Amino acid sequence: MNDFIKFTGPADVLAFIPHTLGFAPQESFVAITMQGNKIGATLRVDAPFGLEPANFAQTTVSYLTADEAATGSLLVIYTDENTPGKPQPYSDHVEALRTELETAGMPLQDAWLVTSELWRNYHCTDTSCCPNQTLDAIITSNGNAALIYRGSAVHGFTAPAPFAGDETARDAIAAHKPDGWPEDLEASRAAWAKVLDNPKSLTTQTAHELAGALQHPTIRDYMMGDIITHAPDQFTSVMLGVFLTRPDWARVDTAQEVAFELMKATPEGQRAPMLCLIGWLEWLKGKSSFAARYFKLALDDVAEYRLAELLAELVNRGLLADCTRDPKKAYNRQLSR
Hints:
Number of strands: 6
Distance between the termini: 18 Å
């Protein structure tokens, strides 16, 4: 099967955005880099209400320059904001972005405005040549149909399931926290690998053992690294998404599902490692908005949890996982326009 999906019009591009982000944006700017006629990176930022245009544009484009292969860009403004006296919402910010994108060598090729009721070309306000379109045109586009056919679906943020056990679980998990001896590390990694290979083998006992193992920082780090197939030896490289080959993304999805199952057996105050794991995997997939929410939940669960603080800093600085920059390694399939 051809790995590429051909986009033939704006509706296809607009359909792609919720699929790649995992949710439909609201009051947002979404910038997409183009690598020739192929889509590169996708960046969502909050709409710049009250922000100075030049600073907003410089910060936004600094994130996009992580795509070193970019030759152009697209912009979508999602807003119901009304700006009386100006032809378009956020016109000063869009103009500042156009200037910065030109300077960065990824000139703006097109832009669209999407409201809760319609969408249209941002630059052309002549309805005789660029009429308003209904949102149904996006839903019924060939691009949306092709993405769904390939197995993509738009899902919102998945909140952790509530704790389903009893208070004896807290002591059981604490009792399974390893001391950090080599044999503890080996046993924990073996148990983790078994569950990743066969998630149905997860029992309450095994969940407590794995949740306990994740409470130990060193063992937790090894278990996170074990999710990535053919991972480099250096842990820092693994955490930053510097991979030698394309990861087994199906295994990554399985690890996230297992982590959600572990949380059902894990009470509050012991969930931070699992929330960090899920958020980190979302970040590797290029879903920084979702990652940030999981890191916040981890800090809500355990105040000043160091790993959550470090990972949240990656997102706050606008850093992208290295693997997201290489279409041969990235989670999202390549798409053409």
